[in-house]
């Protein structure tokens, strides 16, 4: 095996090869520009070459590899081979074995899965330590010799490192149970129930990158979508996929995905009804209530002649189309098509030649009569009229919503869609109505983070967008904080249209240190969900619970002390308290930033903390955090589990009973 100097020399050769790949790709762009054939081919080839040149160029001086596996002589097809693994494939000449293999290639699986008890033919697994892109060390595990030592020091250091800035990729240290999720087949939908910090988000992002590698052409056409809880979270994770060479994954929130401008919010009761799965039936009733029955025959003038579809036939066409309708507007198209076919039969029987122009003219002429029984409608008209008109609503919601529930969603006065002030819950309803009218495109794969918080109606919006694809559902029932948060995965998965998805539990926490996990687990037992406790990977870290008469000066002291140590600091408090806390800190000369800001000290409203992490968390007044919302205990659980190295809990009021008796 190579020594450190040899490995450095090899790293330099890999970088040179990469530079040649960049130069070659750029040259191909130029040659391609001169020689491209037809326009379509030229565009596709040009796009491919430019993307390749850009991706390679962006690699810069990054470490070319992070590990290697060396097989023993009798390891079958890999016998005697050594493979270097990196974020991307590097080769120095066509036809020669690659110098570095992409971490997503099938052969890389063994790097992540092999162990002293299951060496998979590997003699040595080597992990490299890099500092500012310089190779500084390596560490060997002699797997064939049954090396079952407590684990790698490099992995432990990477997991325990202080956090600064946005989330990073974990390709060098993916753990076996995470790797299994990452590499699950594209056709298979999975649901990961993971305790805080078990790497759900990281796994989801790496899965996106893996799937794009393994099924590039299919997924480039249909697309991969990542859904996160809010903008601050998306900002936090935004660098991971580009570092892995994947820049074409759409990352957004469910609200932005629905792309409906909202300008109002709902009262709690109204939101609860609007997000309830029963609304799907109400909306379906409202849409299909638009279809009537013909009163008369349909008569279409054609020159001096008139063609007729008698009332009985017209009625049969409408009810047939209604019986096997896929969407409301395709049903309407089908009615028009059947009517035109009937007219055509009559005309042809009289010896008339029915060309395309004639057929289109007949369709136009029949449309007003069809409009009277199967009108052309828009989603916003349907919803605005439904909630503006108590009678319409009562008809659509009969046997589905109680009178009180109907009253909760009814508008106090009628409005036209143009003057409607839509709420986020309305956006979900509008999306449902749109889908009843016509089908939208679907993605090849959708990754849904913090999925426990989605309402049934939001789940349905996602289900529609992954109808012909698969999904990865990531979440933690214990971290559910919305009024409609799921209490079981069975229900949530069926709303997501993937009832068959396997639920996989991740329980090893890579963020939260053991002392903090112990505190959070005290809360966990009182939450009304059945999930396994977290087991921390980390023995380091510190928990301090401080009772203070003056909470604000205690917060200033805690931030000052935290600033003396390395890493990011998050001060998390009930939403109503953050502005005044930020003011107090500012007066003391400590500037804070919002959760997605770049400063060292972030001031984080409790409602935005989900999915984020800070090296040092200062959680202010648990009792107020709990009281702020119905699922306040779950919220507190989320907040306590944001800490990577140190957690300060500051309180002036009594601690919640669940946290009493802690040893901190
Ligand atoms: N295998 C790993 N190697 C190194 N770091 C890891 C690994 N797995 C997870 N981490 C790190 O642990 C932290 C928590 O990961 P992540 O945010 O993905 O967890 P999560 O399960 O989504 O957490 P939560 O539900 O609390 O938001 C991140 O900093 C992530 O980079």
UniProtKB/TrEMBL annotation:
Residues 173-513 form the UvrD-like helicase ATP-binding domain. ATP binds at residues 194-201. One of its GO terms (cellular component) is cytosol. Keywords: ATP-binding, Helicase, Hydrolase, Nucleotide-binding. It comes from the Bacteria. One of its GO terms (biological process) is recombinational repair. One of its GO terms (molecular function) is 3'-5' DNA helicase activity. PANTHER family: DNA 3'-5' HELICASE (PTHR11070:SF45), UVRD / RECB / PCRA DNA HELICASE FAMILY MEMBER (PTHR11070). This is AAA family ATPase. The lineage of its organism: Bacteria, Bacillati, Actinomycetota, Actinomycetes, Propionibacteriales.
């Amino acid at each position: 095996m190579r020594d450190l100097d040899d490995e450095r020399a090899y790293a330099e050769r890999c970088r040179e090869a990469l530079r040649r790949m960049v130069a070659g790709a750029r040259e191909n762009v130029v040659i391609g520009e001169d020689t491209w054939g037809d326009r379509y081919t030229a565009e596709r080839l040009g796009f491919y070459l430019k993307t390749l040149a850009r991706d390679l160029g962006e690699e810069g001086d990054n470490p070319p590899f992070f590990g290697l596996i060396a097989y023993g002589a009798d390891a079958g097809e890999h016998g005697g081979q050594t493979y270097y693994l990196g974020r991307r494939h590097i080769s120095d000449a066509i036809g020669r074995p690659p110098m570095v293999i992409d971490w997503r290639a099938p052969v890389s699986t063994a790097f992540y899965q092999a162990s002293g008890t299951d060496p998979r033919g590997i003699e040595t697994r080597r992990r490299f330590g890099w500092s500012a892109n310089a190779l500084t060390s390596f560490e060997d595990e002699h797997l064939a010799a049954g090396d079952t030592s407590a684990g790698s020091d490099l992995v432990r250091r990477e997991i325990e490192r202080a956090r600064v800035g946005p989330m990073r990729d974990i390709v060098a240290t993916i753990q076996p149970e995470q790797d299994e999720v990452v590499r699950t087949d594209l056709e298979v939908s999975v649901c990961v129930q993971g305790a805080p910090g078990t790497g759900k988000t990281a796994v989801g992002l790496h899965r996106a990158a893996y799937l794009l590698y393994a099924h590039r052409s299919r997924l480039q056409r249909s697309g991969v979508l990542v859904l996160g809880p809010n903008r601050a979270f998306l900002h936090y994770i935004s660098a991971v996929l580009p570092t892995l060479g994947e820049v074409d994954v759409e990352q957004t929130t469910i609200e932005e995905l629905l792309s409906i401008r909202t300008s109002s919010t709902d009262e709690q009761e109204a939101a609860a009804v609007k997000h309830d799965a029963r609304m799907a039936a109400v909306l379906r009733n409202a849409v299909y209530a638009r279809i009537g029955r013909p009163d008369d025959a349909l008569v279409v003038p054609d020159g001096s002649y008139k063609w007729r579809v008698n009332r009985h036939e017209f009625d049969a066409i409408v009810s047939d189309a209604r019986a096997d309708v896929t969407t409301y507007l395709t049903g309407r198209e089908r009615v028009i098509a059947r009517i035109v076919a009937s007219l055509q039969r009559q005309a042809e029987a009289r010896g008339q030649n029915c060309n395309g122009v004639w057929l289109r003219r007949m369709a136009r002429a029949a449309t007003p009569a069809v409009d009277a029984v199967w009108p052309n409608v828009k989603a916003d008209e349907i919803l605005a009229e439904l909630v503006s008109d108590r009678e319409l609503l009562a008809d659509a919601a009969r046997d589905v919503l109680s009178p009180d529930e109907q009253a909760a969603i009814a508008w106090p006065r009628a409005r036209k869609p143009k003057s409607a002030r839509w709420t986020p819950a309305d956006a979900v309803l509008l999306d449902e109505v749109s889908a009843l009218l016509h089908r939208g495109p679907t993605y090849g794969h959708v990754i849904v983070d913090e999925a426990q918080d989605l309402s049934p109606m939001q789940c349905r919006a996602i289900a529609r967008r992954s109808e012909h694809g698969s999904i990865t559902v990531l979440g933690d029932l214990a971290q559910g904080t919305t009024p409609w948060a799921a209490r079981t995965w069975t229900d949530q998965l069926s709303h997501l249209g993937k009832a068959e998805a396997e639920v996989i539990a991740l329980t090893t926490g890579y963020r939260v240190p053991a002392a903090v996990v112990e505190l959070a687990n005290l809360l966990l037992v009182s939450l009304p969900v059945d999930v396994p406790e977290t087991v921390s990977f980390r023995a380091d870290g510190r928990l301090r619970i401080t009772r203070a008469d003056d909470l604000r000066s205690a917060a200033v002291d805690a931030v000052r002390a935290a600033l003396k140590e390395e890493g990011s600091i998050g001060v998390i408090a009930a939403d109503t308290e953050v502005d005044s806390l930020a003011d107090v800190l500012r007066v003391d000369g400590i500037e804070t930033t919002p959760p997605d800001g770049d400063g060292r000290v972030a001031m984080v409203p409790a409602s935005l903390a989900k999915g984020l992490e800070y090296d040092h968390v200062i959680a202010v007044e648990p009792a107020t955090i709990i009281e702020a919302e119905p699922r306040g205990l779950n919220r507190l659980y989320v907040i306590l589990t944001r800490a990577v190295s140190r957690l300060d809990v500051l309180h002036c009021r009594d601690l919640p009973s669940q946290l009493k008796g802690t040893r901190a």
